[in-house]
Amino acid sequence: MTTLDDLDQQALLARLAPFNQLPEPELERLAATLRIGQFQPGEILLDVGEMPACLYIVMEGVVRELDVETTVALYTADDAFDARALLEGNSKRRFVVDEPTRCLQLPRPLFLDVVQTYPQVLNFYSQKISQRLAAMGEAGQNQEMAAFTVAKIHDAYIHPPVFVTADTSIHQAALAMKAHKINSLLVNRDDEIGIITATDLREAAIVQRQSVDAPVGSLASYELIGMAPNDFLFNALLRMTHHNINRLVIRDGGVIHGILEQMDLLSYLSNHSHLIALQIERATSKDDLKWASHDLVNVVRDLHAKGIKIRYIMQLVSELNKKLLRKLFDLLAPPDLLAHSCLLVLGSEGREEQVLKTDQDNALILRDGFDHGDLERITGEFTSGLLEFGYPRCPGNIMVSNPYWTKSVTAFKDELFQWIVYPKRDSFLQFAIFCDATAVTGDENLLKHVKDRMYHLLSDHQSFYSQFAKATVAFETPLSFFTNFVLEKNRDELDLKKGGIFPIVHGVRSLALEYRLPQTNTVDRITGLSQRNLFQPAFSSELIEAFTYMSALRVKAGLQKTTQGLPQDNYLNPKELNKLERELLRDSFKIVNEFKKFITYHFKLGMIS
Predict the structure, then answer these.
(1) How does pLDDT run across 69-91, given as a tens digit for each residue?
(2) Per DSSP, which regions of 76-156 are E strands?
């Protein structure tokens, strides 16, 4: 038995959950008691029915956990065992050394003392799956970025409101802004409140050459976009990005607290995504947009490195992606085409779940009777433009450059009839992609008309739901009967999308269609289904946590491959995860299996061929 330097011991404990939640003096105390044990292959460290003498933390080597003769888990560097046996007083499994191994050993009395003194340690070992998944996400955030995700609007600087009347002159308004060192004023006009900015004043006085004595009432905007002071600051960033505005009116009911300026928000969040939004807004050519598009990966990398939750990253990237597509289409399409069409994003983009650039999935609905002679060139340039921006062509050719995905309202309704009433093998995939459609630009009513027809057809053909939902169980979950990961043939990786993410997305999509939910986002759909009492609240939480955790792992693996110059895909090597991450992935796959059972029962999949 040898000792390890106390500082090294403390550093090791500080990076292992749940000990990373302990105060420094406690880590010091524990570190001083750790000893190193050297073990050879075949040694039994803990047998069934035995009371453990210590908690083992593997430094190097491999320890195998056996249930009778079957391997149920392998423990490698930084893995710990068996806390459950320490808490219960005896072991349910046998732990055998697989190769020359070194372990740190924390004596049982000290472990139990820590559990009794620090409830968070006991909670860690007794949490439900959803709680452990949520805790994993929280533990990954550093202090600065934890503040990022929970910061409220009132935490940032809000400019006190300064009011003027509608008959205040341009000159007087400019003097008021200068006196208060602000860039906007609130305007009282009868029972309305509007806002006027320094830009509005310059536009009126310099560009339009209005008299400086003219009243500001007609210059103000009276459709105020506001938020409550206790809303999240990140939501304020999303709202500004979505509406292309630089300030929000902060109000609580009828009380106006002031103005939140974009620069004050950004100085608090310290994130350069606003620069991309600004680049997109100011772009006058495809080349301008290309530069903005290339920065998107850096935004994802920065946000992920800072511990931002995957849901927030998805929302922000979705807003930026839609702005990019909207701007590109606006640059290419003449006004009459914009007025008589609706550009859609489909699939993961429509669900606001795309983070890294994936295949193009888009479509264009045209108003019945409208025809544009240059449509083929415009849609072709749109697809090639996105290709230049780094969005690969869709292997299934689901792009506006394909006439099948650019057609009239009536033509899309006819297609829906074929998909639903006379479905073929390929039509289920096409329908799945389309029913996640979200409008990007143009007349959104065109999409509404098509979706109204979709729900009408579905109500008349109830049998379609079961056929459609069947794809949920089409792929095996990559987890064996003994909870080992099942890797793809000829590679040391598993397909995270096919094995875990897709079954949740598609099963939830099938249920959302049946219940006619308007949401397209998977988490929003799960929440909506739970509110209709389809799921127990606990299972709803587990499903959301499993989905977001696997999505986060997928982004992490994708970013690593991008850094290494490798193509992005959906594969993950579980050996590159630490013990806790592997356990949580196993737990997530178990939730996927439970959900598959639910879908099989709900849609009676066992009764269809």
Answers:
(1) 766 677 888 888 988 899 888 89
(2) 80-81, 94-107
